[in-house]
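User: Please go through the entry that follows and flag anything odd:
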Amino acid sequence: MEFKDYYKILGVAENADASAIKASYRKLARKYHPDVSKETNAEQQFKEVGEAYTVLKDPEKRAEYDVLRKQGSRRADGGFQPPPDWQSAHAGQRSHSQSSNADYSDFFDSIFGASGGGFRHADDFQRSANQRGRDIHHKIALFLEEAHLGCQRQLSLRVSEPDQNGFIRPRDKTLNVKIPAGVIQGQHIRLAGQGEAGVGGGKAGDLLLEIEFAPHPYFAVDGKNILLTLPITCWEAALGTSVEAPTLSGKVKLKIPKGASSGNKLRIKGKGLVGKASEVSGDQIVTLQISLPKVHSSEAEALYQQLAECESEFNPRHVFER
């Protein structure tokens, strides 16, 4: 395999900056473009110039190439010997800015290119045998009603799997997932074998779904308990009554005790998130909040005045008095 001196091909110094590299590339690309060039081997020269620019314009690839260039050795037969155990971080990757059918040299492909090379040491192949695939972590947002009753969801994921030649390539994967009833915020659902494929016959990794709850217009969540702030009128609080309160499974009648205050909490048993077969369902915790009309009629104001006179001995701020 012939070594490619990309600095020499572009005619720039080893310490050339990005602008100098770009300017030289543009000049040589115009010079050797097959459609206009009269130079001998213009097409081959054009490809070499493009390959050199692909490496030297990328800071990471250029840094790898510089190490390889300095630490590798050139044999008498013109071949090239990389440093021991050399493995490129870009092996198997292709610059997305380049055409997928670009004709790169064997040298480029062995370091960065489509063959997935990178001068892998023999021990690397042994270590990759029977290697389990990576787990994929994915968050999924559910409405509370979906978490309460369970649902079906279709997920689209980006995974890396071996192609027909055994090289790792990204691909899109679609899964139909069944979410069981009663899942809670932060819970993980493990789908065995739905992660990234293994290498060398190793098992596939798992897909780990982390449950998140989408914001609800009036419910909040505490574990399996559902929290609700329920507005009531001052007369409902004073006299006591029964009102309708929403739950995840429909409206229920809730008894407001006589003399209730804002902040009082009432518990509706079993109306939280459903539990599994061996678990108890959560409850719904209702916090009362006394609400007043923004505008009162003159009759209502007269009644409030009468109430103030009747209850003149009551002072809710007496705790501040000394």
Observations:
- The longest helix spans residues 18-32.
- The first strand starts at residue 73 and ends at 74.
- The two ends are 95 Å apart (CA to CA).
